[in-house]
Backbone:
């Protein structure tokens, strides 16, 4: 029992609404970073520029519609339904999502540093993945701004 009291005292707890904003900021940063790097890579290999942009846009929208819209809704609802009024600052993701995020970041860095995949292909991959991440962030902003109204329902 004593350990639980200590943990509760040192736990960086924040209101769920702030947790929603934190999730939005992190998803915005991740998506923005991928879009930024992808656009830099596109500048380095401008051949077939419009084809790459078109493919990335279509792929990004498909990823958002088929996967990321469901994932971001699931995380937003999970945060909204957390039992604690001030959950841990790091609970904007569950453990499985932290593992998945770590694997994806590691693979992205590995592919970029190893040179196994040419920059022209990485540009498409980065922009394609940046679009749904960046777009998903807006769901968290929506939930955060309307948090008190949604809570009353």
Residues:
């Amino acid at each position: 029992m004593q350990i639980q009291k200590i943990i509760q005292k040192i736990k960086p707890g924040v209101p769920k609404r702030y947790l929603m904003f934190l999730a939005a900021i992190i998803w915005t940063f991740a998506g923005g970073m991928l879009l930024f790097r992808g656009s830099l890579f596109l500048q380095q290999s401008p051949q077939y520029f419009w084809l790459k942009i078109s493919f990335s846009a279509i792929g990004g929208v498909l990823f958002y519609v088929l996967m990321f819209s469901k994932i971001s809704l699931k995380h937003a609802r999970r945060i909204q339904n957390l039992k604690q009024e001030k959950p841990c600052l790091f609970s904007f993701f569950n453990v499985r999502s932290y593992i998945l995020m770590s694997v994806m970041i590691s693979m992205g860095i590995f592919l970029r540093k190893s040179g196994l995949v040419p920059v022209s292909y990485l540009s498409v991959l980065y922009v394609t993945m940046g679009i749904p991440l960046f777009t998903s962030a807006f769901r968290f902003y929506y939930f955060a701004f309307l948090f008190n109204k949604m809570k009353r329902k």
